[in-house]
Amino acid sequence: MARQDILHLLTALPGEYVSGEKISQQLNVTRASVWKQIKLLKEEGFEIEAHTNKGYCIIKTPLSLNEWVIKQMLSTFSLGHSIILQDELPSTNIKAKELAREGGSHGEVILARRQRAGRGRMQRGWESPEGGLWMSVILRPKLSLADASKVTLAASVAIVDALAELYQLQVGIKWPNDLIYNGHKLAGILGEVVGEWNSVQTLILGMGINANFPREKLSMATKPTTLRDILGYEVDLNKLTATILRHLENQVADLEKNLFEELCFNWTARAVGLGSEVKVLRGEQIFHGIFHGISPDGELLLSTEQGMERFSAGEVQLRSKSGQYF
Question: pTM of this prediction?
């Protein structure tokens, strides 16, 4: 008997009690077995009320990651219908790449409650304590290599729109892959191609969101923030996962339809520092100029004394009101 079978019975009649006898009869197990599984569900974070004469009633699903809960909340066609959830991984992107090489399907999602060796761009470490949303998605989109690089831009818009929908937060995008709230880093994205694009056409999209923990758990050097610090409460990571996947699926579908102008417009509308002075670091070179958005190829546009410069790689630093860059 799987615990999911009990959950299906309890959620079939929301708010109503289901007797232990009915559950045991339908699943052909003892009532003692039912009680044991209910106990395990409670340990997973499900709030289940037990009444001697009535049976069991599910009151609340857990806020922490739970595969069954995510799947009940999904409204996607392909993303998230196969989910791997681990308590701990070195990195969800590393696991996703292993699965992709073994034939992992488009839309497969890898989640970890914590990462030992999470990574950001340029091989930098990404702190991933328990309570965050650490997720990678295997994507096999119908895109050219040039257009595949735009998937990270699409993911930025998807996450920003999910946060706005769920929590009414106005989060900004800092080129190329950071999400910023009031000058503090809330999330990051890492896209990695697996194999030769012309033959494999597989992209691993990693997303990390600081969620249900205090920012003091992270290095203050990165000027982080978390959803818990911003909102004052812990969020439902399952609903957040399902909502991001829905927005991401829509954004990738638009890219496959060559609707990049619309993505470019949506990304620019959410960009941090547009029209402001920024500093772009590319290797040991430093470029100063005014940030003018992104080109049709997803490159950063910087107005400098030498004219309009384009950057397909690098790191942007924004100038704050105090004159400091972050």
Answer: 0.93
